[in-house]
Specification:
It is built from 4 helices and 16 strands. By secondary structure, it is mostly beta strands. The protein folds into 2 domains: 1-75, Acid Proteases (Cathepsin D, subunit A, domain 1, Beta Barrel), CATH 2.40.70; 78-207, Cathepsin D, subunit A, domain 1. It is globular and about 50 Å long. The two termini are 28 Å apart. Belongs to the peptidase A1 family. Residues 1-207 form the Peptidase A1 domain.
């Protein structure tokens, strides 16, 4: 890929794992090629683990091909069928806080490790930002008072019939501000994707 991206960035490339339907010239994607070889890949699945410790550079994350690594999760896996083979698109059952549901029925969502934040329809995200005491900044970002993180409510995502709770420390990004302190930003951002692709949520790295 041309441009400054791979000159300035601290990575060697991008390993795209989307479907052929959205690839350039419908070129067969890496996972299609790997899955086609049952000798090396008996299980057609893959898994990601991303560390939440920004200081642990040596163990930033892991991708497991053709299997899962039980060292990085507990309990049972919630399986959810794909809605369509464009992105890794599934149905998000609900988003709720303290018993109040903020979604009106199941909505399409994309599981995407290439998106840093957790995005959703702007009207719903604004309600969530208000609930967690978010202070509007620029470009749709919200700041949260760092000292309030321990008292922030859990935000519950329902997938595959199971509830997954994000605590304040999970959905608030704590970033050095250059003055010896920290700036705390909400990991939620509004994004209105028009039909037919949307509306939808993107379950990025925050999730």
């Amino acid at each position: 890929e041309p441009g400054i991206t791979f000159v300035a960035a601290k990575f060697d490339g991008i390993f795209g794992m989307g479907w052929d339907t959205i690839s350039v010239n419908k070129i067969s994607q890496p996972m299609d090629q790997i899955f086609a070889n049952s000798a090396i890949c008996p299980n057609q699945l893959f898994a990601f683990w991303l560390s939440r410790d920004v200081n642990d550079i040596a163990n930033g994350g892991e991708i497991t091909l053709c299997d899962t690594d039980s060292n990085h999760y507990s309990g049972s896996i919630a399986w959810e069928p794909l809605v369509s083979e464009d992105y890794w698109r599934i149905k998000l059952g609900a988003v709720s806080i303290s018993g109040t549901t903020y979604t009106n029925g199941p909505m399409d969502s994309i599981v995407d490790t290439g998106t840093s934040l957790l995005t959703g329809p702007s009207d719903i995200i604004k309600k969530i930002q208000h609930k967690i005491g978010g202070i509007p900044l620029i470009n749709g970002e919200y700041e949260v008072v760092c000292s309030k993180i321990p008292s922030l409510p859990n935000i519950t995502f329902t997938l595959g019939g199971q509830n997954f709770d994000l605590q304040g420390k999970d959905y608030i990004l704590q970033l050095p501000n250059g003055n010896g302190g920290m700036t705390c930003l909400s990991g939620f951002m509004g994004m209105d994707i028009p039909a037919p692709a949307g509306p939808l949520w993107i379950l990025g790295d925050v999730f």
